[in-house]
Amino acid sequence: MSLAPAPTVPLDARFARELPELARAWRAEEAPDPRLLVLDEPLAVELGLDPAALRRPEGLRFLVGEALPPGAQPVAQAYAGHQFGGYSPRLGDGRALLLGELVDTEGRVRDLHLKGSGRTPFARGGDGLAAVGPMLREYVVSQAMHALGIPTTRSLAVVATGRPVVRETLLPGAVLARVAASHLRVGSFQYAAATGDVDLLRRLADHAIARHHPGAADADNPYLALFEAVLAAQASLVARWMLVGFVHGVMNTDNMTISGETIDYGPCAFLEGFDPATVFSSIDSGGRYAYGNQPLAAEWNLARFAEALLPLIADDQERAVELAVASLGGFRPRYNAAWAAGMRAKLGLAPTVDDAVLVPLLDDLQALMQQSRVDLTSFFRSLGTAARGDAEPARRVVLDLAAFDAWLERWRALGSDPVAMDRVNPVYVPRNQLVQEALDAATDGDLDPLERLVDVVARPFDDRPGLERYAAPSPEGSGPFVTYCGT
Ligand code: AMP
Ligand code: MG
Question: pTM for the complete prediction?
Fold first, then answer.
């Protein structure tokens, strides 16, 4: 197999062609001095791109959107969205561009997209740019999510542009090259529905079915089936987030994909001390998108998705609402089942353990974890050690030892498999202070901490000597961690 030198990669313009009403032809701003910060070489190869060619000057010009392969038609995508509950009819790619779609080496259609590539017609008051730190945050966290087996958009590369961006201070600018199954969001459907053009809405839904949920095409009601497929994908996705303690931070409807991939790593962070009320984002003062609210936020977003789809679900509006409400009722059982299955695995329990035993066991464990604010990641790893016979590491972090010992006894009586536990309980997640340290160093020109962190989170389940620092919770007293959006 030969790999295409980047600037000649064949990029399709399927989205622009099939949905011109949602696409504005646009070009990236020039980068005065492009410099490669990170490149995911295996991902490049998976996409059929030659990593060596991407590293060369013309490859970098491709990665910032300046050098376009023949036939490429970059567009800014239109979408709407509910942001923190308030509806914005016109968001769209204010600082991003869809370069086009390519077919990867496994035959899958993938979007190649840029973030931080300059102002577009959707920029509103924004400068269209992105700083090195936040683009590297998206790079490292999406790498970690992928390695954890959680569906996510991918980061191909981050290129420093040589153009400063004005935030609270002047910061070095960067462009992220992002890869996704698609960039269709709930907000894309809200935008199409709001135009009142049912033909556009139907073309968008057909495009989404063809790309992500082809089985829906054969259903009696394909658009209701699309809704149910997205609901199932999101129920499973959010359960995966909850199981590893991922807090997305901005679960607006424009940040929820139709594919079921995690998208837009803004003020996201990983939970350390277990508390459902945990919020990291500086812009989420009300705690709407707190860790424990994420399933509800997903359900709320899905209700907005259903509203947008109503004209396609049935001609009669009342009938359409009835059908959509019935389907939406499937979210909680699906989410609960996915979460309980994940917890069962985290505790190394066999599928034969009855739900009537499992559910109270999980409830009691959560209460103990919350009471002691245990570090979620290391605590589950220490339960693996407990399953091997040494409960001390887990007991050390729990306050109510009598209750915990009683819980341990109930759990051990069910028989748990420590090897299976180690396959699903990560040792390493991108811990907030380590991410921040790596981003700060990279902003100052030192990429070593970032490269080390990327290497650590790429193999999250293998305990490796010498990496204790990456497995440990933040030192106590370092204060609540805050992440910033408006990136
Ligand atoms: P996000 O918080 O990244 O999901 O972005 C929400 C909306 O704000 C999207 O429409 C973005 O395109 C837009 N946006 C965010 N930052 C900027 C920026 N610096 N310039 C222009 N638009 C932006
Ligand atoms: Mg977004």
Answer: 0.97
